[in-house]
Hints:
Blueprint lengths: L1 E7 L5 E9 L2 E8 L17 E10 L2 E11 L5 E10 L7 E2 L16 E9 L2 E15 L2 E13 L5 E9 L6 E12 L2 E10 L13 E7 L5 E3 L19 E8 L2 E7 L1 H4 L3 E5 L3
Antiparallel strand pairs: 1-2, 2-3, 4-5, 5-6, 6-7, 8-9, 9-10, 10-11, 12-13, 13-14, 14-15, 16-17, 17-18
Amino acid sequence: LRIYFSTRNSKCVSLTTYIDVKADNPKEILYVHDKPIIELGKLGCFDESGIMPSCIITYNHNKYFYYVGWNVGASIRYRVSAGLAISLDKGYTFTKISDGPILDRNIVDPYAIGNLSILIENNIWRMWYMSYSKWEVLNGMPEPFYNIKYAESTDGINWDRKGIVCIDFKNSEEAGLARPCVFKKDGVYKMFYSFRTAAANYRKDKNQSYKMGYAESNDGIIWIRKDDEVGIGTSENGWDSEMVAYPCIHKHNEKIYMFYNGNGFGRSGFGYAELEF
Length: 277
């Protein structure tokens, strides 16, 4: 099993690489790749300040690698958009399809585009993605608000966005719905994501910081939040005792794994949990 992830260098720039682990025992690391697989964008491009993995789709024997590109901001700290690179050699090397993003700010997403999840059904590419809804100054610092929207495509590159919100804030205290990961089981769409409050201290206060969320849908568009059924929380102590965030679901044989980040948005690393039926 190959796991793509990003790390930050001494200049706080995110770069993407991968590790290979044993598929039926992810604790056993087989190989660590020590070089970035995608170079930063050219000066002025949407991904000149960082690249983070978002979703990989196998299509026509090629790997479609969707990623988040970062720009350093001015009035706000950063701006993010979605890019695409394709691998023709089973995921060893990737080539960007363009210098520009495939998803950027537009009339229905006026602020930014974050992480996304894709399923292909009946030749339709279905995407669930983070859409920034506003920035708000809290304790003197601009903070982002983002929910989860839906889009469709016939080629995985050109996307039809109608502003459909799938998962929205449940109350005025909620501010961040991040990293949707959608899969289908027994005819039901299931989405794991992470959510946090709007409190200015959400980075350090475990009560305000990221927790795992869960929702279900019959059509992939209208969702019912069932966060109480998510089945995973922070640990009593250790690397994920303050925060659990950014889930990625992977099925291997009869096992379903959730890979996720721990404290400090991943400062403490990433790990995994196994679904118990």
